[in-house]
Amino acid sequence: MAERKVALFGGTFDPIHLGHTAVAGAAAAHIGADKIIFIPAKCSPLKDSLPSASDDDRLAMIALAIADNKKFQLDDYELKKKEASYTLETVRRFQAQFGSDTSLYWLVGADSVGELQYWYRIAELIDVCNLCVMYRAGYKPPDFIRFESIWGSDCVEKLQRNVIQTPLIDISSTEIRNRLAAGLDVSDKLTPRVADYIHKHGLYQSEAEY
Ligand code: ATP
């Protein structure tokens, strides 16, 4: 049976922006993935603050942002868990769901390279899926050579092979939250439906702790 390729894209998506959807589309094309599943995190085990928007609002915004792309799907697996989920657990759950004829790809932006060494059982994660690090504006092209003494050359070669040269789109959720709190325009950074949702629900209005 032909091998199926499924890409998983985790993040806080607080809110989802045009950078997310653009790199996800480019990565899916590069991989030849049948589908790409957006998996919002309850919170990141490595971020010190909780998402600003509620789980329901983040889910709703992702649904609106991906509605026009048939390859894009949304899964609330991590949100339904009581505790923050480790990527390895999430990958194992989807591998069990799709079976062994499906290859899984986990997408992450280049801003995460420095923190990968602190991810839960990272060497195992690199082994069980294709951890694909995508280019990101403002960050160096992903390079893993410095991790060779920790993870070994096989792991590092696999990471290097899976780097995806996605388009550089200089947008972050932090910038969007800050601009909204300051009453500034963000319409060139969001799908119009997401911008409408944020406006209608009065999200990200306060200066809070960004
Ligand atoms: P924040 O500013 O709140 O940290 P963010 O914009 O980085 O948010 P996340 O939801 O944390 O968005 O990102 C989810 C994943 O998407 C991460 O792996 C991140 O590296 C990647 N990502 C986010 N924005 C971009 C972008 N513009 N280009 C490439 N990758 C991105």
- Care to count the β-strands? 5
Helix residue percentage = 25-40%
How widely separated are the two ends?
A: 49 Å
Q: Output the CATH class name.
A: Alpha Beta
* Rg value: 17 Å
Strand order of the largest sheet: 3-2-1-4-5
Number of helices: 9
State the CATH topology.
Answer: Rossmann fold
Q: Which stretches are poorly predicted, pLDDT < 50 over at least 5 residues?
A: none
Judging from the principal axes of the Cα atoms, what is the shape? globular
CATH architecture: 3-Layer(aba) Sandwich
Q: What name goes with the CATH superfamily?
A: HUPs
Determine the structural class based on helices, strands and strand pairing: alpha/beta
The amount of beta strand, in percent, is 5-15%
Q: Compute the number of structural domains.
A: 1
The string of secondary-structure elements, in order, is EHEHEHHEHEHHHH
Any ligands, ions or cofactors bound here, and which? adenosine-5'-triphosphate
The residue-averaged pLDDT reads 94
Largest sheet: 5 strands, parallel
